Amino acid sequence: MRTRTRELISSGIWTALGFVVILGARQYSLGTLGNPGPGFFPLVLGCLLASLSGIVFLKNLKQKLTEQDPKETRSFFPEPSSAKRVIIAYVNLCFFRLALQFLGFLLSVFFFSFFSVLAIEPLQWRKSLIFSILSALGNHLLFSVWLQIEFPSGILGL
Amino acid sequence: MDFLHQASYGFSIALQPANLFFCFLGCLAGTLIGVLPGIGPAATLSFLLPVTLAMSPVSAIILLSGIYYGALYGGSTTSILVNMPGEAASAVTCLDGYQMARSGRAGPALGIAAFGSFIAGTVSTLGLTFLSPVLADVAIKFGAFEYVSLMFLGLTILAYLARGSMIKALSMAVVGLIIGTVGTDLISGIPRFTFGIEELYDGVGLIPVLMGLFGIAEVLINMEESLKKDVYTTRFKGLFPDRQDWKDAIKPIGRGTVVGFLLGTLPGGGAVISSFVSYAVEKRVSKHPEKFGTGTIEVVAGPESANNAASTSSFIPLLTLGIPANVVMAMLLGALIIHGVKPGPLLMQDNPDIFWGTIYSMYLGNVMLLVLNLPLIGLWVKILRVPYLLLFPLILIFCIVGSYGSENKFMDVNVMIFFGLIGYLIRKTEYEAAPLVMAMVLGPIFEKSLRQALMVSSGSFVPFFTRPISGVLLGMGILLLITGALPRKLFLRKLPPNEV
To answer: Taking CB atoms and an 8 Å cutoff, what residues of chain B touch A148?
Structure first.
């Protein structure tokens, strides 16, 4: 994707958010200048965001394409395998959040550590296993035992 | 309180065994993350926050502050030995520090960075000690008009000093202000933008947003690079700079301290910019600027002193006005609020233990850091070999625990994960997260002051300009906006882009 396309998409999203905030702010009372209501500040902010991002959007729209400009063709990820690693790390994090609610802290940390290492360096089963056992025990001792943070107990009561 | 009374009180708090221990722990942890590239103080503070929940507020702030200024000591080690900035603020140190190391002078480079940091850190703490009470006295008289103008100036300075485009930085600040409006309106009591979600009535939590934007997003950015990095280390012997080194370095250390101290107090100023400005200043005053980049000790000493002076002076606006100067200070603000302490002009009166305890712990911390850094450098170099593959799951676990543990709410974890993605995407599209966070912190105070001021003036904007302090602050802000919109010919905006 070209840098310009990315700029257009991102500034477009911020502009749209500005308009959403303007619409949202109109649901609350605006008040008067001498006695501003709850909708006053958000309305001003919505207008500011829409116009600032609108300027960025229009600037990029007007910009002429110059093929030689290295900025124009720079890819989104620095390496071909970057996307895979970033997505794995993020999805794994989301699963960790879900697991924490249902499996309890100890097991969630174990699985999260295990899959984090394994997903990035496949076939390193032993390394992942040792690391995840140590990580689960260490984090359990630090947070549940020493700092006494109360996590949901999970299905196994751990 | 006179000075002696103040000092003995401050030291009596800072020297309590628990506080002394946490100060040491903070400096140690700070040096560690300073040495490790890819983990900054903001991310570290965010995931170490849960550890502080069980402590007294004084110990917690002493620990977290130690991590911050400790990180800036450690950052130079990696820059000099591995040519990779341990912290963004040490990026310029790579230029000449690594060249010194290559010509066999790694020892003096490391030594002068540590001594320079010590001198700058201590002088800056002295400034903090004497200026804060004065400023707090002035700030206590601030009314709604002054606060509005001050925050307006703060946000424009923040956008002006932004690395990328000013307009993008401004729009991020507006997004932050918008996020700040989520929750119950302070004046009318009406819930806004809560979408019927009860947990949002208190607003979006600052800590989960910070952890997402800085902790999670930083991990995701680091995941882009292959995780195996070759670490090459230089051999070195003798850490003490000789007489000639001192002669060359002492003036840059002095100038760096002044530059860092001044820039550190500005919103968005802080350690990174002051190290670049110190480099620029040295280049301007030097008699042989053509030698820069070949291993001149001046530009190791200056920037390293500047970033430490800045890290200390950035406490001034937080402790006296309740306004954070940078993201790390926003994090400390969040920590104070979790502990039920409200920073601001009244902090010195209401919580003298926190105010003076923190400041005086910095004198001790700087001594500890000097001791930690010089003899233990061999150990830090070994730590550089810990693979990121094992580090990143731990960082993410700490972030999850930190966001959940502060209030035992899954909503906070969801917010953090959401803002992790947002933080990653805005960095990839060349926006900055810092103005967003700062504006989010300031938002509610800004809105409340603005509405109060307008009620007092019955809708007129004239008093913002005619009240002396407010008028000056507002005028400076408008001037900055205008100069920022002009073509980039100004000195500050021509600084080397920070790619870290």
So the answer is: 54
Tokens linked to B65: 């502050």
Q: Which of A41, A76, A150 sits opposite B450 (nearest CB)?
A: A41
Three-state DSSP state, B289:
helix
Q: Where are the domains of chain A?
A: 3-73, 82-146
B46 vs A89, B327, B353, CA distance in Å? 19, 10, 24
- Per-residue model confidence as pLDDT tens digits over B360-377: 999 999 999 988 887 787
Average pLDDT for B79-105:
82
Helix axes A105-120, A125-139, angle to 10 degrees: 150
**Total-model pTM:** 0.80
Give me the count of residues in chain A. Answer: 158
Q: Is B447 on the interface with A (CB under 8 A)?
A: yes
Q: Compute the distance between CA of residue B108 and CA of residue B114 in angstroms, rounded to an integer.
A: 10
Residues 180-209 of B with CB under 8 A from A: 181, 185, 187-188, 190, 192-193
Given A37, A46, A149, which is nearest B401 (Cβ)? A149
- Contact residues on chain A for B390, CB-CB shorter than 8 A: 117, 131
Quick one: which of B4, B73, B106, B88 has its CA closest to B427?
Answer: B88
| DSSP 8-state symbol, B239 | -
Nearest to A109 by CA among A78, A154, A79: A154
How much is the pLDDT for A72? 55
Residue type, B71: A
pLDDT digits (tens, 9 = 90+) for B207-243: 888 888 888 888 888 888 775 554 555 566 677 888 8
Please report the ipTM that was assigned to this predicted complex. Answer: 0.90
Average pLDDT over residues B232-259: 81
pLDDT band (50, 70, 90) for residue B347: confident
Q: Can you tell me the distance from the alpha carbon of B359 to that of B64, in angstroms, rounded to the nearest whole number?
A: 13
Distances in whole angstroms, Cα of residue B122 to Cα of each of B115, B329, B370, B415: 11, 19, 11, 39
Q: At residue A71, does pLDDT exceed 60? A: no
Positions of E strands within B318-439:
none
Q: How far is it, in rounded angstroms, from Cα B69 to Cα B326?
A: 13
